[in-house]
Design goal:
heterodimer; A: mainly alpha; MetI-like fold; 2 domains; 2 strands; B: alpha+beta; Dipeptide-binding Protein, domain 3; 7-stranded mixed sheet; 6-stranded mixed sheet; 17 helices; 21 strands; 20% strand; globular
Chain lengths: 330, 532
């Protein structure tokens, strides 16, 4: 019965998401029209100047000579057909460009999520269990520092210390381009390259989750159900792991949902510092190049991803806390 | 009768290339991977349709041109093993090398050359549209001979035939489908020393050795990998650690160049930009008061302390100048130093005097008038140059407010809307003044919406006429005289204030030798580069 309801809930949410995503597309499209200059100017600029015939040729080819509403209509029609268009600047279909960047992005995102959520939860619980001991102080101070330090600076410092001074990790990139390893050696090589960017990108959220977790665990341990459990004679350890942890996870899951959205775009800095071939850099470059087809494609994908993550978060709520029901009235 | 016949035979010049092949030490030179950092990542690899700097840095390893050039900017044989120019300058005949194959195994013939120039470069290449405008037809009497038929003589054309500027494409590949969106733009097939293997966007382009290259025994390297690293600090770190081996064109900022220069494993090379020759200029909107007044423009040119700018902003990588043509053209005679010299010790006094004469006395607050200076959005040194300009102008009583915008916005402001007062830029002289210099102040190049042309909207019939004559003048001496006068006129009128020639710095790992061996530097094929 509950399974059925869950499926129905997910389907309803997906249906509701369609107008949201289309709204996002239209809004993005109109917002981008406000940016001065167009792709043809930038392309000609990069070329070190070009005759007007050439620039006009470009505009006609990009469809930039048509009225804005016509351009929007065409774009919407194509989106509905799941055709994201062509990036003239990159001379490749938008979908191909995005898919090429998707797996490095997901890899970095996944590793970051695991480290920050996992580490944050553990550190938060440890700090809460030893509240006002040296462990708590140490973790809390470290968290504040990690929380307050700018990402790019952490990244560059890690490179300076671990790549240049200690020679433990490569400075940048996703794999060794002199060796071009294959098979397992390649997996190890990629993991090796993944370490520094993951640490850099994780630190902020790790600190955030640690603080969040510590606060909620402390709060939940004072709740009535914890007192009841204590009265039942359970050990503090059992209370925390069995009862408190489950309740304390809810805010962390919420934040993780938000983080996924932010990771998609917010990793631009880390991707740039470590030359990681992710979507963030692609979006950044396409904005400055006024490559709107590509940018809109990335926005579209991000919107879809955020919608999906939101649904997943809602489902996790239900699994964590049976009091939360899906599908409204029951 | 003037002799314009030029004949270069493989026996003479080709020897310099091939003499290396007989050295016994050769075998030891083979092998190794060169990792090149190119910034930013090229949007495509179609160097026949985009002249963007990063595109050229990659594609020049894959495509050959009809010619290569030595450091005196003189042509040397490449795919063309010899050539003749007719007496009237209107017929140019190239004899093509035989046995040259494209990377897909097909032979390179005159049909490919004809297709490349007539169907591609003349139609879609951003500069080719101009460079080859005079070419009316290309005849192919046999598979190894191409004859260019010109409407009027075009001496500059001979300087634009490198693999970077005019890559020779395989007709059987690129004649299929629309050249503007051709799928092989990003999977290039040429005759060059390296073959395209893979492009992982955001990461690298991999080029492997072309074992069938037409220069025997070359290239030495097994592979070139071009990496894309967005952060300047990381680029320097990768070079320091030896993860990457070469980076040029400002990919490493000058302050990092100085730091890297101190390391034992790195050397700094400033050669290899002689066919590009960027010259920094202040641009004045000459159709807007007070910059319609020649004295105001001259005053500002006097106010710029060239030596200070070079030493403090460009870390010594530059050379003071007054005029639009780079001193790199001295060997060809086209550069002239006989122009107004704005680079004088009493520049500030002269500037103040000129502004007084122009009718802009200092007000009570010490300023004569207030303007907005648009900073060139190309990075750190340009921002500092903008700040310096602000201070220099304050010294002569002009209050300048700085404005900083992104590239697209700035381009539109300067070259489409002309909504600016003073800005700065650096135009490449390229291989010939016709290609790189005329555009900055010939009135034919006042073209709204076209970037890097006459954005100052200055026009002078005499200068126009001289440039038009120089365009078709085939006698080098007469051509030099025409350009000497152009330089005299335009420097005196100061529609732009040329301040200095930039020397780009290439950061190079010492283990690699013979990498920069041509005036095109990173835009050349690296066929002779080898690793110790």
């Amino acid at each position: 019965m509950r399974g059925m309801r869950l499926v129905r809930f997910i389907l309803t949410r997906l249906l509701q998401a369609i107008p949201v995503v289309l709204g996002v597309v239209v809004l993005n499209f109109l917002l981008l029209q406000l940016a001065p200059g167009d792709a043809a100017t930038v392309l000609a600029g990069e070329a070190g100047g070009a005759p007007p015939e050439y620039v006009e040729q470009l505009r006609a080819r990009f469809g930039l000579d048509k009225p804005v509403l016509v351009q929007l209509g065409l774009y919407l029609k194509n989106i509905v057909l799941l055709d994201l268009g062509f990036s003239f600047r990159n001379n490749a279909p938008v979908l191909e460009l995005i898919l090429g960047r998707l797996w490095p992005t997901l890899l970095l995102m996944g590793a970051t999520l695991v480290i920050s959520v996992g580490g944050g939860v553990i550190l938060g619980v440890v700090a809460a269990l030893g509240v006002r001991t040296w462990r708590d102080h140490l973790i809390s101070i470290a968290a504040v520092i990690a929380y307050a330090t700018p990402l790019f600076w952490i990244g560059l410092m890690l490179i300076l210390v671990f790549s240049i001074r200690l020679n433990w990790f490569p400075t940048s990139g996703m794999e060794d381009v002199v060796a071009f390893h294959e098979g397992w050696a390649r997996v190890v090589d990629i993991a090796h390259h993944l370490v520094l960017p993951t640490i850099t990108l994780s630190l902020f959220y790790l600190a955030l989750y640690t603080r969040l977790m510590r606060a909620t665990v402390l709060e939940q341990r004072g709740a009535e159900y914890a007192t009841t459990a204590r009265a039942k004679g359970l050990t503090e350890r059992a209370i925390t792991l069995r009862h408190v942890l489950r309740n304390a996870l809810l805010p962390v899951v919420t934040m993780a949902g938000v983080q996924v959205g932010a990771l998609l775009g917010g990793s631009v800095v880390v991707e740039t510092v470590f030359a990681w071939p992710g979507l963030g850099q692609l979006a950044y470059q396409s904005l400055f190049a006024r490559d709107f087809n590509l940018l809109l494609g990335i926005f579209f994908l991000s919107a879809c991803l955020v919608v999906i993550v939101n649904i997943i978060v809602d489902v996790i709520y239900v699994l964590l806390d049976p009091r939360i029901r899906v599908g409204g009235q029951s | 009768m003037r002799l314009v016949r030029r004949l270069a035979l493989i026996a003479g010049i080709g020897l310099t290339v091939f003499s290396l092949a007989s050295e016994p030490a050769l075998a030891q030179r083979r092998g190794g991977t060169l990792v090149q950092i190119t910034q930013p990542e090229p949007p495509s690899l179609g160097s026949y349709i985009s002249t963007a700097n990063p595109v050229g840095q990659v594609a020049s390893k894959i495509y050959d041109g009809l010619l290569e050039y030595d450091f005196d900017l003189k042509p040397i044989p490449s795919l063309a093993e010899s050539w003749t120019v007719s007496d009237d300058g209107k017929t140019v005949t190239f004899r093509l090398r035989s046995g040259v194959k494209f990377h897909d195994g097909q032979p390179m013939t005159s049909a490919d050359v004809q297709f490349t120039f007539m169907e591609v470069l003349k139609k879609v290449h951003p500069r080719g549209i101009n460079t080859f405008a005079e070419v009316t037809a290309i005849d192919t009497p046999d598979a190894q001979t191409v004859v260019f038929r010109l409407n009027r003589p075009a001496p500059y054309m001979m300087a634009a035939l490198s693999g970077y500027e005019s890559p020779i494409l395989p007709k059987h590949v690129f004649s299929q489908g629309d050249i503007r969106t051709h799928q092989n733009a990003n999977r290039p097939i040429g005759t060059g020393p390296f073959k395209f293997v893979e492009w992982r966007r955001g990461e690298f382009v991999r080029l492997d050795r072309n074992a069938d290259y037409w220069k025997p025994g070359l290239p030495y390297l097994d592979r070139i990998v071009v990496r894309f690293i967005g952060d300047t600090g990381t680029r320097a770190a990768a070079l320091e650690r030896g993860e990457a081996h070469i980076a040029g064109f400002g990919a490493v900022p000058y302050n990092d160049v100085k730091k890297l220069e101190a390391l034992p494993n790195i050397q700094i090379v400033t050669r290899g930009y002689e066919m590009l020759s960027p010259v920094v200029e202040l641009m004045f909107n000459t159709r807007r008061a007070p910059f319609d007044n020649v004295k105001v423009r001259q005053a500002i040119s006097y106010a710029i302390d060239r030596k200070f700018v070079i030493d403090n902003i460009w870390f010594g990588f530059g050379k003071p100048t007054n005029g639009p043509i780079s001193s790199n053209f001295a060997p060809t005679g086209l550069y002239s130093a006989d122009v107004t010299n704005y680079n004088v010790p009493d520049g500030i006094e002269r500037a103040n005097r000129l502004l007084d004469e122009a009718g802009f006395p200092r007000r009570a607050d010490g300023f004569r008038f207030e303007i907005t200076h648009d900073i060139t959005p190309y990075g750190e040194e340009w921002r500092r140059f903008g700040e310096y300009t602000q201070q220099a102008l304050a010294r002569i009583g002009i209050k300048a407010n700085l404005r900083y915008e992104d590239v697209a916005t700035w381009l539109k402001r300067i070259y489409t809307d002309y909504d600016y007062e003073v800005s700065s830029n650096h135009l490449f002289n390229l291989a010939d003044p016709v290609l790189g210099v005329h555009r900055a102040f010939h009135s034919r190049f006042i073209r709204p919406g076209t970037v890097f042309v006459n954005g100052v909207r200055w026009s002078d019939p005499r200068a126009d006429e001289l440039m038009d004559r120089a365009t078709i003048e085939t006698d080098p001496k007469k051509r030099a005289e025409l350009y000497a006068e152009v330089q005299r006129i335009v420097v005196a009128a100061a529609p732009l204030a040329w301040t200095h020639e930039i020397s780009f710095a290439t950061v190079l790992d010492r283990r690699f030798r013979d990498v920069i061996v041509s005036p095109l530097g990173l835009f050349s094929s690296f066929d002779r580069a080898w690793r110790e």
